[in-house]
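> example.struct
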């Protein structure tokens, strides 16, 4: 049915597909913690960072429902689609993961997923 080269190619394709699936499972089980850098002002734009602290201020923007949190004097931008119906309260301890970006000359963290906001209890 298949010649030798086709069988070898098919086996290699299956092996690569299994390796990709296995890598995906391992990376999902690890989470973002091993890959995130603790936030500081020296971190470059585009870097995945983590930030732990209490919410100092909550601002809901009137144009679109985006949320800006201030955590440890750091601005954290949460798009409306990520924030959803979630309510944020001043004083709540949180662990956040996001990407650093500079907006109007000031560094901020942009949260990309609702799972990237964890309330610490």
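> example.seq
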């Amino acid at each position: 049915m298949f010649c030798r080269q086709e069988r070898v190619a098919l086996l290699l394709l299956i092996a690569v597909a299994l390796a990709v699936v296995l890598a995906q499972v391992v990376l999902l089980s690890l989470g973002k913690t091993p890959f995130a850098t603790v936030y500081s002002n020296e971190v470059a734009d585009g870097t995945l960072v983590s930030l732990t602290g209490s919410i100092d201020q909550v601002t809901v923007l009137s144009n679109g429902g985006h949320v800006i949190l201030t955590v440890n004097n750091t601005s954290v931008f949460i798009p409306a689609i990520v924030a959803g119906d979630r309510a944020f309260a001043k004083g709540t301890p949180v662990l956040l993961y996001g990407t650093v970006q500079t907006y109007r000359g000031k560094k901020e963290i942009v949260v990309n997923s609702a799972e990237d906001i964890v309330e610490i209890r």
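> remarks
The beta strands are 37-38, 48-60, 67-71, 74-78, 93-103, 106-110, 117-119.
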